[in-house]
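Following up on my earlier thread - several people asked me to post the actual chain instead of describing it. Fair enough. Here it is, all 371 residues.
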Amino acid sequence: MGRPDGIIINGKGGKGDGKDEPMFSMTPGKTYRYRFCNAGMKDSINVRIQGHTMKLVEMEGSHVVQNMYDSLDIHLGQCVSVLVTADKDPKDYLLVASTRFTKEPHTATSIIRYTNGNGPASPELPKAPIGWAWSLNQFRSFRWNLTASAARPNPQGSYHYGQINITRTIKLVNTAGTVDGKLRYAINGVSHVNPTTPIKLAEYYGVEDKIFKYDLMKDEYEPPVGKAEEKITLAPNVVKVTYRNFVEIIFENHEKSVQSFHLAGYSFFTVAIEPGKWTPEKRKNYNLLDAVSRNTIQVYPNSWAAIMTTLDNAGLWNLRSNSVERQYLGQQLYFSALSPKRDLKDEYNMPDNDVLCGIIKDMPLPKPYSV
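Reply from S.P.:
Thanks for posting it. Predicted structure:
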């Protein structure tokens, strides 16, 4: 739910007037699972239900400690599941979603109707929290459920990520500037553009040196201070990473708006978010026991966020801003995790009928991966 000029719930834009609102039904005494996803283009949202609390049970595929919440902030690209029990007076209640951190909040509502209910919902909507400090404190309350089962026949907590040695630290700073009079967004001074030959095809055919350069973006970056304008490079932003290495990625946000990032192909542990600038000494504040494993992370204004992950999925994986305009105007990059053995156990071959373009269009198929 969510878009820059309003909010959509189940395909309908509610206005809070009850005339064109989607509706859900609950039977008294029963418990229901609601899953909220912020599939918007720009804004964070807050969701709440009149007179009801929500038990958080899942975040982006992870079982979490089942704390109770009156409302939940959901940032761009994030999904959560909650349990709601129909234990109030049988009548109508409003599910409310509103934008956060915007000058004028946009609000949508949905009717939750108790079966055999005997009255309309109150027109007084529960208020959203104010400020991002509240949202940061809520983030800190989210915990991985260490005893819940995982994909393998072991509890989630059997994976002790906090005991793995960090092999590489990458600090990413989101910035903005102009190139030839046009707005561009960048990560560490590089604004991504797609080459005419797709990056993965260029790697598979062994002609990447003719299409792009690895590691134009450095692991450490400091934007210019004061009024100095940042130099932004327009190029494919491809970072070569060592397969199966355990990395620490720091997102540093020097802007006044909340940012949100997604890493395709991996889940990561969201070990910390704090105000200010990151330094190695900040590691002492990391949650190395029960940080939630997920695939999106928000970064508050003038703050930093730290994640940890094992790059054990061979291939080319996109890390991008969840803001559509920022992503479109260059605030994204690709991690290239190449299998050193070209082994089918690590990565599949490109399909023989794949559509070819660019400089590889008429080239013969390369030697396939083997077991």
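The longest helix spans residues 132-141. That should answer part of your original question.
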